[in-house]
Sequence to fold (201 residues):
Amino acid sequence: MGETSQHGTDGTCRRDAQGTRRRLLDAAAELFAERGYERATVRDIAARAGANQALLFRYFGTKKALFGEVMARGGQEQLRTTPADRLFEVALRGMLAGGGGPGADRSLEVCLRSIGGSDEIADALRGLGEEYAEVLATLSASDDGGLRGDLALSWLLGIGLMRVVVGKEPLASADPDTVCTLTAGALRHLLEHLPADGTTG
Fold:
């Protein structure tokens, strides 16, 4: 499927292009989360988006550049818009939701399934992880706040690994509210500036 019309107005063409670009980003986010960077092919991303590969390369240039935009749209947006004291839970709920709906942030799932890829991809994932850990570290006034932030991130990714990638029961089918409640209570010993109510519900 190409761009919709050569006879429409410039505004219509721009809307069509924006819609196609958004569908490609959504499809890439889904497939990177499901398969990881290496196994998600450009052909499959384009097919899921209902577009052709030529458009993917036209809008993003390379698969690696597309991956970068997926991570920027998801993880960076989450970091930018989520209060520090809600970040752990919001990120955890995103993984527990098992994909959510179209446009849902799946950047941490992408991280879990893409680790072990090329050095450049690993560096990008490491950079995003460091940003999450730095934000989490601000929730502790302790001298070892950086370590506490790393431990919180490790716990978050570990939960995601066991539920999303490994499918370990009973965690894999546990109710997200239950998981969030149990983790919030324990996490407050590590990050003492978490809200006392534990979850946002």
Observations:
- The two ends are 42 Å apart (CA to CA).
- The first helix runs from residue 10 to 35.
- Residues 1-7 have pLDDT under 50 and may be disordered.
